[in-house]
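Chain A, query sequence.
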Amino acid sequence: MQSPAFQSSMALIPEPPQTLIGRQESWTSLHTAFNSGSYPMIYVWGAPGTGKTYLVRHFAQTLEKQANIPFVWAPGRKADFSAQAWLRAMAHELDLTEDSELTFDQVRSTLLTRCRTHPFHWIVDHIDDVPFASQDLAEVAQALIRQGGFVTFIGRTSPVQLWPGQNYLRSQLSTILLEDWSFDQARDFLSHHQINDEALVDHVIQITQGRPQLLAAVCDGLTHLDATQVPAEHTVFMAHAMDLNGFLIEQIFHPGSLRLTWRAGQPLDARDTLIAAASIAPMVNREWMTRVVGRATVHQAWERFVSCATLNSYRGGYYGLFPALREQIAGAVQKIRPWTWEQWLRRSTHYYLSLLQSGRLEPDQAWRLLAGFIRPRLGYHPFRSEGQSLIVRQTDHILEILTENGKIVGQVQVNVQDGSLFLSDAQLLETSLNWSQLVNLVAQQFHLYSAIHWEAAPSSGELAHLLKLLQFTPQDDQWWDLTFAIRTYAQWLQDLVAPPQGLIPGDPVSVTQAILQNLSAGNEESHPQADAYWASIADSSTFRAWFRDALNSANLGERVDGKTTLVLYYVDRRGTHEELAELLHVSRATYFRNHRQALERLAEAVFC
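Chain A, predicted structure.
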């Protein structure tokens, strides 16, 4: 039962803060649950970023102010959160002396003793990640309630999954599910922040899909950007001041920042680096990130990275960018930092292949992770899977492609003979499915067979093109063959994800130096041999961005003198070689040695 103080102070539903747009019903449900003796425990749950913590914290502050009910906040999720770390954080909340080894019983006893003296509101955030059994936490909650306290759990897991088989316990819960805002609610939120341009509003809603935390981050960035003078010398790197594609990395995560350095090709902010790299894969963990961007950067920014508004968290320390944003960020990174993006791709493919070869990754999982890295040309990823989730189902001799709601959108005739898979009569039944998606889904089963034979006329357009990319061999009778007799499935995958190869210039160092000289003279041309090389592996218009990114990001020497000599001489034009040697306090011999080494390393990076 609630205390008289609570009943008198909270008999009327308090007005929710104006920032809680779209959560009035949830606010009322919280008040109803607290004002009734029927549901002594509350569980607020929903997807990451739906505003659960924000809602409960505001309600707890209202309780404390109007009903004199203080709250004790159990710590939320942190990366690598151990049992001792959680107990120490709880001890700090309760003003306990932090012994070297705290126990759960010590914290439990302190909570109950404190509640007997003055009932309080205990809030356990991110209960999914608390390193103790949810059953144990529920028992402590029930004991607190018997002492006159209040308890609210916050999590992303459904109560049935969190407390399986605990029907009686779940019957004691008042559950409040928070979902993404409707488009109308999202519009109200943007209007509240004076963002009313129709095209911009539509773009923001499309990207955020009504996810409140993400929408708030975007809105914050837009509001600050609108009131900020962007440095004129940097506007060349922004296609449009209000283009979300252009300022996602900078303005969402550093609202109002004037740096714009990440997109200008200058040294990277560590958290921006992790955000950009995370756009490569659907899910990443700390081990993956360390292999891709390096241990020092991960160590510096991991905690800030896992608390980003764009990030969904999963069990086991895995994280993924909010799906609606992943492609936006990936597109921006590939356009502005193409050389860096390619290096991350190579390290990521090497990591996944090593997991496959060591047995830590199943073949079908390896295909799903690596298919998006197949790139016959730089920037062209025919099997990158985004958008709607599709399901594969095999019935008799037909393999069907279905949407999540069970609608069949494609099918292929299937026959298995002597360990070989025969595929024929592939059909797209709905325009929502394309050939890349169909081939990608069917290919997940290739590892089960010694050979795959697919019927498709060489003139059948995109299907034939995709089979050729997967290294099928065309036969005379309209069949395409792929066998694993000479090379293994893992070797085939390794060949598929290898970077595209072009004809490297005969003297790449001289070509690189000529490009630098053109850059120094303000000449937009590169070099005929460089143009020929690039045309064979990528779109010709992207070479200049590739070259500049390599100059900025490649390791051109352990000592600063290597890259410095190139930048000062060719880009900044700070003086002659002799003058720069004096400026850098090195001998002419050392200067020219560093200069030559930097040119060689840059040539290797550009024509890799």
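DSSP finds 27 helices and 14 strands in the chain. The two ends are 72 Å apart (CA to CA).
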